[in-house]
Hints:
The chain is an alpha+beta fold. 23% of the residues lie in helices and 20% in strands.
Amino acid sequence: MTLKTLLLGAVATGALAPAAFAERGEDGHVNIIYWQAPSIMTPYLSSGTKDIEASSLVLEPLGRYTETGELVPYLAEEIPTVENGGVSEDLKSITWKLKEGLVWSDGTPVTSADVKFTADYCMDPEGGCAQLAKFDHISSIDTPDDLTVVVNFDEPMPNPYGPFMGGQSPILQKAQFENCTGAAASTCTEANFNPIGTGPFVVDEFKPNDVISLSANPNYRDPAKPAFATATLKGGGDAEAAARAVLQTGEYDYAWNLQLAPDVLASMAEGGQGTPVSAFGTLVERLEMNMTDPSPDLPEGERSTVAHPHPILSDFNVRKALSMAIDRNLLTEIGYGQAGRATCNLVPAPELYASDNTECLTQDLEGAKALLEEAGWTDSDGDGIREKDGMKLSLLYQSSTNAVRQDFQALIKDWWNQIGVETELRNVDSSVFFGGDPGSPDTFQKFYADVEMYANNFDGTDPQSYLQMYRCGNEPKPSSQWQGENINRFCNEEYDALLDELAKTGELSKRGEIAKKLNDIITKETMTIVPLVDRGRVSAHSNTLGGVVLNTWDSELWNAADWYRIDG
């Protein structure tokens, strides 16, 4: 079976389930809490999940993925397929048709020019776009009329749904952002904090790293939606406080990403005010090994850049030993219980794309010691820390502030200490760490540390765009305002060649084989990424909030237009 055959047989579904309300705004106010506070309202200038999801309340793509991974139209009339003529027979173009009568929240028409502009905005060579991998292999975009967008690729694209699909690739209004392209993108505070969108809500006030006040979009295409007249998305605090606010006190209606020990969450759920919801997708907690030198002794602008290889982690044996020392099963048990699965894969699902790589699941402290010894890292002075050529085996290991992550850091530090690695721990407020501010030294993109730990996932069920993140040249750097998805500055010619092969391969079984090979290169053969836990997504909603459908394949707030109040 080929992906082309799948496209031929695909049927684009229409609107989602009908709302349980009849008048926009009749259910008053809804309170949402994201303990990682959003810092910007566009996913093109941040790859932090908190920012992508907050943006999805306002900005929308042409199509989304449902909770089952199915493609459904949003701003588009239908999902283009080969069968309906939207995808060309040679797979080198995809034609999107906008719904008639769409308007932005300011009342002006949505046109094909906005869609084309969005691609031009992200692909501007003088800018830095956090979602650039979504636009890989685009050669041109045509707009034959106001409602038609033709995306042309420079080679057959069996999976043409990278651009404009899912919460990571929404449409921007050209009129608002046309003076915010290239190097100016990050300077347009008003547009970046208060985007004009087509989604169910509009921003009334945005306080970065704190709170977003929103109200119902008066020009939303369904006159009966959203049910809520106003919404608050509060950021900050921690996962435990967020869970308590929904499950015990009832202060909030929805809490995202409850990264808590399983016994803590279960105890809170007894409060009776709310309901935890969970589902597995592709969210992997992992370590990224910095392949470049983050030393503060280097001039600003040269730290963590490919011009300076890492003096320790460039050694494969060190990376492998660090991985071998970790007990992933214990981490999973302590941190997530049934909501986690130990993994060696960056892409743990769907099954078609998941490698059978399980070697890392067995901790081997003695083997890690022997590997370091053979590589010349020895403890010559008896202080318990290995050295080589006068350099101590000493690492700075950072992550965002979160109880589970700090537990992981403490355990991993202890295991690394047992094999002779000195480890300094640092945790950064999550709003800053995932914020994408090019002026901050503490973002995960800038990576001013040796090792960092976090998790993210990808829209939809096909990992092509996700794996393309690690293409040579896609690293965050000064010239891209420190935007970019190749966080550890990995570069491998074989990997890039396989990416090109994946992009033009249609047979699903072969796509799976290539994706598995790509996964294994970065997680097993080079160990630049060290996966730890395949995390189930766990959130919670109040017992009076209806319409919530947890979605691990798109933004969690993907169907906020369908939320409504249940009379208690």
